[in-house]
Write a structure and sequence with these properties.
Chain lengths: 99, 129, 543
């Protein structure tokens, strides 16, 4: 197995997630892009686990999934509170705090 | 510091010069492209052009569909149990050889999650009103 | 990628499963705090509402003290590793290192937590309720919110949330393995995101702070995780000791390793609030309830710097020539950003936030100086000891200063705008004096702990050969002193604007916090010896 395509794919997914966070304005979409970054990392982790022939990377992927789930719970709670208050999930509208 | 180590350091930092060059070129490229774009394009912004593009049709309503908040809480509880299962399966393949201590330790783990469930129950989340 | 050869059979390497052993005694402070957090959730579920506040506060205080006592026992029981390799052992199958620096950081975090609990529990200032939202789900400015506030509701969940965050903070600097470090990072961050959004007053600001903190925090932890994946791909192990071995066995630069170091650094530097990853700090510090700001400014920074030190000294120590230039740039940028932008602030909490960014820069100076071995019997300090000491001084000053901010109020709550602070010296010479002292401490005036802390990191950095950085740091300290003194001048030599500020007499809880912060700042400035000795005795990280 040549790991390069898998690592390449994970790097592309990570970059897409990263750019998404930077250019999108909707909090939910930004949040989905962050999840994409985490899952790109998972792909890299399991590929490297295969390359090195040990299970560390796969176990790590489990932990990352759990952490991502916890992050979803907390993140959606925060985004939902903001949305109910402002009727908008645009991060541009959240601009009371500056300078 | 001895003289030889200084030359070594100079040579070492010298190896970063290509990196620096790439950064400079990269930054310049961004400015050049955006600057060129801004200079060449006509700019006649109308409110319509700033609307979200939705297959050529005027966007209708908001991108948000209302769902009852209750589903969020159920999703949360689903997460609790999904997380539970992820760690139970690998353990289930080996616990027979480990004895009761490992069962007790797994009990502690499930206890952690149960605390969350107890909290949800006492806050009235589990009753469908 | 040529070095990556795929092993034929994964199952061969898995082999027989052996039962992991857990060192329950060594990990007891951490386990106690997790237990306290869970107990807090149970209390929230079963104890009647009117008793919850008292029970939660007691559980948190007693639990933190118990963890502190166990930390002392663990510290006394640390075994020397021989030939100057530090004290302690690797626990939990290589996942957690319980060594001198770990125990020192545990002690620091727990003491700071203890006084933060008092700040959280303060009820006098808001007229009988805590400073946290009565009902976080009620929308600001609605009937539901007014009803919650007339009923005197309060969220006592803040105590278990805080304890979960503390559990993450204890685990973070102790983690000896990358995935443990990532999990600890999230355990410490997630409760803090929620706590930031729970202010009773100025709820829109508070919610916005929570959103910004969460978004940027999740973004940075994505970088951290990809860094873990790359370093794992490079070293074939998550364990810091194995990574160190792989790094020292490498000749030349490996793109996987360099990329991994860079991405891991982004995640950690975000948490310590170093430029250019500092943008969240002022917004979050301003918007969060002041008690939470005090807690996270002090404890998060201690925990994150502990993790940064362990990761870079233990894991990437052999690759230091690759990461020192990067940290040099970050340190200078951080100090400059913190000091210069603090000059332009008009809000006291924002100013303190920029000041904490500047402090992160000073700590990075000590970190990058990398004076690895001190001559025994002299006053020389290793960079590790200098940074540990600085973190203690910084923690107490910061909590003290934010505690003072909570008592200066007007009709709309805390008077955080700087113009409201003018003439405070006439209104309340005592409070203004204490605050002025904290500011002088942060500026690093002799006879305060800020001076001894700065002296420690600067000398260790100088001895480590980073003298240009020390010169820059000293110059920027002078700039920083200017904006601290500006506030002092404002308090003492300006006339009050309008009605002027009022100082609300807090309950004994906040008074204790201010007194402890003040006492620590004086004591560490006048007789820093004992704590410096303690930091020196902490020795080095074990691997």
């Amino acid at each position: 197995m040549d790991p390069t395509p898998f690592i390449g794919l994970s790097a592309i997914l990570f970059t897409i997630g990263c750019i998404g966070v930077l250019v999108r304005r909707n909090a939910i979409v930004i949040f989905m892009c962050v999840e994409l970054m985490l899952n790109a990392s998972n792909l890299a982790l399991v590929t490297f686990a295969r390359v090195h022939g040990n299970l560390d990377g796969q176990v790590a992927a489990f932990f990352v999934m759990v952490v991502a789930a916890a992050e979803v719970v907390v993140g959606l709670a925060i985004i939902m509170t903001i949305f109910r208050t402002r009727r908008s999930a645009s991060v541009d509208d959240a601009s009371l705090l500056k300078y | 510091m001895a003289g030889s180590s200084t030359t070594l350091q100079t040579a070492y930092f010298g190896s970063y010069v290509p990196l620096l060059a790439i950064i400079v070129v990269g930054v310049l490229l961004v400015f050049a492209m955006f600057g060129g774009n801004a200079l060449l394009r006509p700019s006649h912004a109308t409110p319509e052009k700033l609307l979200t593009y939705e297959c050529g049709v005027d966007p209708v309503g908001e991108g948000w569909a209302q769902t009852h908040v209750r589903y969020y809480v159920y999703a949360y509880l689903y997460v609790v149990f999904a997380v539970d299962a992820v760690f139970l399966f690998p353990w289930a393949t080996v616990f027979a050889g480990l004895g009761w201590v490992s069962v007790a330790e797994m009990g502690v783990f499930i206890g952690f999650i149960a605390v969350g469930l107890v909290y949800a129950w006492r806050k009235g989340v589990l009753t469908w009103t | 990628m040529t070095t990556l050869a795929v092993s034929p059979l994964l199952s061969e390497s898995v082999g027989d499963f052996t039962k992991p052993s857990i060192e329950y005694f060594d990990l007891s402070p951490l386990l106690i705090i997790i237990g306290v957090a869970l107990a807090g959730v149970i209390v929230e579920a079963f104890v009647p509402r009117r008793l919850r506040y008292v029970v939660q506060t007691l559980v948190a205080v007693v639990g933190t003290i118990a963890a502190l006592v166990m930390t002392v026992f663990v510290a006394l029981g640390l075994e020397p590793r021989g030939d100057n390799a530090g004290f302690g052992a690797i626990a939990a199958e290589g996942a957690i290192a319980v060594d001198g620096p770990t125990v020192f950081l545990w002690g620091t975090i727990l003491v700071l937590t203890l006084i933060s609990v008092f700040l959280f529990a303060e009820r006098h200032l808001e007229g009988g309720v805590t400073a946290f939202a009565g009902q976080a789900a009620a929308l600001p400015g609605t009937e539901a919110e007014r009803e919650a506030s007339t009923k005197g509701l309060e969220h006592t969940e803040v105590f278990p949330l805080m304890m979960f965050a503390v559990a993450g903070m204890l685990l973070f600097p102790a983690s000896n393995d990358l995935i443990t470090m990532f999990v600890a990072l999230e355990i410490l961050s997630l409760p803090l995101y929620l706590l930031c959004g729970l202010a009773r007053r100025r709820r829109l600001l508070s919610q916005e702070a929570a959103l910004k903190y969460f978004m940027l925090g999740a973004f940075s932890s994505g970088f951290f995780l990809y860094g873990i994946a790359l370093v794992y791909g490079y070293a074939g192990s998550m364990n810091l000791g194995d990574i160190a071995e792989a790094v020292s066995g490498t000749i030349g630069a490996d793109p996987l390793l360099l990329g991994g170091i860079g991405l891991l650094a982004v995640g950690l530097l975000f948490k310590v609030g170093a430029a250019p990853f500092h943008a969240w700090t002022p917004d979050v510090y301003q918007g969060a309830p002041t008690a939470v700001t005090a807690f996270m400014a002090a404890c998060t920074k201690v925990a994150a710097f502990g993790a940064l030190l362990r990761l870079f000294y233990v894991g990437f120590g052999a690759a230091r020539w690759d990461w020192t230039p990067m940290i040099w740039v970050v340190a200078i940028l951080t100090m400059a950003t913190g000091c210069v932008l603090a000059l332009t602030q008009s809000d006291i909490k924002r100013m303190l936030a920029y000041s904490s960014i500047a402090h992160a820069g000073f700590i990075l100076t000590g970190f990058v100086g990398l004076n690895a071995v001190a001559t025994p019997g002299t006053a020389e300090l290793t960079s590790l000891q200098a940074v540990l000491f600085y973190l203690v001084t910084y923690g107490f000053m910061t909590i003290g200063a934010f505690a003072v901010v909570t008592v200066v109020r007007d009709s709309s709550g805390e008077a955080t705008h700087l113009s409201r602070w003018s003439g405070l010296g006439k209104e309340s010479p005592f409070v203004a004096g204490v605050f002025a002292f904290f500011l002088l401490g942060m500026a690093g005036i002799p006879l305060t702990s800020g001076f001894t802390g700065k002296w420690a990191v600067f000398t260790s950095a100088w001895q480590g050969g980073a003298w240009p950085l020390v010169v820059v740091a000293a110059l920027l300290s002078a700039v920083a002193a200017f904006f601290y003194i500006r506030v002092i001048v404002l308090m003492y030599f300006s006339d009050p604007v309008g009605e002027g500020p009022t100082v609300v007499m807090p309950s004994v809880l906040t008074t204790i916090v201010i007194a402890v912060g003040f006492a620590a700042t004086v004591a560490l400035g006048v007789v820093p010896g004992p704590v410096l000795d303690l930091a020196a005795h902490a020795g080095q990280f074990v691997r």
